[in-house]
Structures are given as C-alpha cells and as structure tokens.
TrEMBL record:
Keywords for this protein: Signal
Protein name as it appears in the record: TRAP transporter substrate-binding protein
Highest taxon in the source lineage: Bacteria
Organism per entry: Haloferula chungangensis
Coiled-coil features, chain-numbered ranges: none
Transmembrane segments: none
InterPro entries cross-referenced by the UniProt entry: DctP_fam, TRAP_DctP, TRAP_DctP_sf
C-alpha cells in the first residue's frame, strides 16, 4: 500500500524531530551546552555509598561548581568503587583517567609518605583539635605536600579540601568490651601500614582489603571485624554482620578531595578558582552534615541491635604507643610536633 501524502509529511516531521534530538544529544556528549558554549564534564570517583554524608558533600561540590561556572563545569559522580578501590582511583587520577577522587588520607600515605601521619593513633586530642589543625596552617601545608613525592618530584595529585570522617573505632562479629577482646581477631584495615601496625600492637592480625570487598569477607568469616566511623558502618551495612561496636576512637583520618595534576593543568585560571571555591564550600557543608549524620548513624545502629560501648582510650593509647614511635619520624615527626602545638 502506498503511503498517503499526510502519512509522508508526518514521517518527514518525525524524522526531522529525531535528527534534532540526536544532534542535541551528540552536542551534549561533545561538551556543548544548548547555547553553544563549552561544557566540561568532570569525573569524580569514590568508594562510599550514596547514602553516606561524604557522598552528599561531593554532590554539593557539583551543585556549587555548576552554579559558579554558570553550567559550564558539570560533575559526574561515580560512587561505590565503580571505578575501583581508593588506591586504584588515586592511580587513575594521576594518569588523568579520573579528574577528581575522594579518598581517605590513609591510602595516600603509599603515594606521599608524609600522609601516613594521619593514621597515627590518637594524633589529635579531640574533634576540636582535629579541625583547628586541618583549618589552620598545618592543614594547608599538608594539602600542599600532597603534590610532592618524597624525592621532590610531582605526585600528579593536587589536594583540594578535607571532608570530615569523624573518628574510627573497632567493630566485630564477636563481643568487644576492651582492648583485650581484640586479641586473636582478624581485623580488616585500609591499605595503610600504620593501621596494620596498630592492629598488630593490639594482638589482632591485620588483613588489608578494599572497602567494597569487606561485607562479603565479614559474612564469610574471612575477617572477624574492622574499624570505621558510624556513618560508614551504617551505610556499608556491615552492621548486619557485626553487632559489636567499641568506641575507642583510635584515629581521626580525614577524607580528602584530590584532583589529578593533568586535570588541574587543563583548567584555566578562572575555572581553577571555581573548582577551589566549590571544594571549600562543600567541605563546610559536609562538616555540618557530618555532625548530624554521625549521631543519627549511632542511633540507627543501636536500633538495629548493635551493642555500642565506650572504651577507655588509655589502654588503647598505651598499647599503640610504639606505633607512633615507629612512624612519627622525619617530616612526619615535624608535623606531629606542629600538630601537638596547635592549641
Ligand atoms: C572511611 C573513609 C573511606 C574509606 C573507608 C575504608 O569510610 O571515609 O574513604 O574507604 O573508611 O575503611 O576503606
């Protein structure tokens, strides 16, 4: 049957419409906004769940950057280790495959050794001290130090801002009541020699693995426990397996937003200022959120049947002291002294 004229015209119209949609889509992928201006898509990768307050901080970074740049810089977030563990993300960020990553400062120590500092047990006196250090000259100097390796060459990374990651405490599938109850347990740690040594100093054995693998390992008995802050214990759902959380607060290891030098160098000066401003803004936003979410997480964990006990930190501090002596050397020793001097 031959199509009628009206069917033919309708066909033409639909065809023309499809072409427009197609070109508009290609334009977007090509990095062009509807008004023809350039849109830069920025890949940000991290390992946490989308319900985690750190993820929400990164979302705020995206919103603020969009606002400051008038839509010319767009952030695409890849959460939950979609692009790899934190160590892999750091490598990809160095190589320019990822533009920005959010990692714990712990694995950075394998790239820039001075960063091992943050994992030292009881480095900070309390939360106020932690933020006074990070917001002050020492925090800024450490962000700058992230760009340089021990041999003085570029690390390929640019430290942008800190996010609150609270304090880390032990949780396990077995009852935890004191430092003694960790003896003989297999405890997962990040890729972090300081955390490994700290766990060993408590008589447990340390097992290094990515955060994403941990749920299965806890469930299958590969490890008996781990250590983290309350929002991470909650959003990872490790609490489904680990019903014992001992608040010993042995470390305060901040999270950090890290750009790759390749990405950073590809921005013009105005764009860099926007990225910097949006990052710092998101840090303030995330910190406020953290305070609320951290308490909420403890309440939810308790409601889910997790036994939460406060530990006497003195026993932990005493047992982990040799770890501080082992790792607080060279540049790190200088920073430890400067941190101690911050009132
Ligand atoms: C925290 C931290 C993450 C890190 C995780 C871990 O949740 O925010 O960046 O990956 O600890 O223990 O691996």
């Amino acid at each position: 049957m031959k199509p009628s004229l009206s069917q033919f015209l309708l066909g033409l119209l639909v065809g023309a419409l499809l072409c427009c949609v197609g070109f508009a889509w290609i334009g977007q992928r090509d990095g062009k906004a509807a008004d023809g201006s350039r849109v830069r898509e920025i890949t940000v990768a991290h390992g946490l769940a989308v319900t985690h307050p750190v993820h929400q901080g990164i979302e705020e970074f995206g919103r603020e950057l969009d606002r400051l740049s008038g839509g010319s810089l767009k952030v695409n977030i890849f959460p939950g280790e979609q692009l790899g563990t934190e160590t892999v993300c750091l490598e990809k960020t160095q190589q320019g495959e990822i533009d920005i990553t959010k990692v714990s400062t712990a694995p950075i120590g394998n790239f820039v050794p001075v960063f091992k500092l943050f994992s030292l047990p009881y480095l900070f006196r309390d939360e106020d001290h932690y933020w006074r250090v990070l917001d002050g000259e020492v925090g800024e100097d450490l962000l700058d130090a992230l760009s340089i390796t021990e041999s003085g060459t570029s690390s390929g990374l640019v430290g942008m801002t800190y996010y609150d990651a609270g304090s880390r405490s032990f949780y396990a599938t077995r009852p935890l009541t004191s430092a003694d109850s960790l003896k003989g347990l297999k405890i997962r740690v990040q890729q972090d020699p300081v955390a490994e040594a700290a766990v060993k100093s408590l008589g447990a054995s340390a097992v290094t693995m990515g955060f994403g693998e941990l749920y299965t390992s806890l469930k299958q008995g590969g490890v008996d426990g781990a250590e983290n802050n309350p929002p991470s214990l909650l959003s990872s759902r490790h609490f489904e397996v680990c019903k014992h959380y001992l608040l010993d607060e042995h470390s305060r290891i901040p999270d950090v937003l890290v750009a790759g030098s390749k990405f950073w160098d590809s921005l013009n000066e105005t764009e860099r200022a926007w990225v910097d401003q949006a990052a710092r803004h998101s840090s303030k936003f995330q910190r406020e959120l953290w305070a609320i979410e951290s308490q909420k997480a403890l309440d939810e964990l308790e409601a889910a049947g997790v036994t939460i006990l406060k530990a006497d930190p003195e026993a932990f501090r005493h047992l982990t002291k040799p770890v501080v002596e082992q790792f607080a050397t060279g540049d790190r020793k200088e920073f430890v002294n400067r941190i101690g001097a911050v009132k």
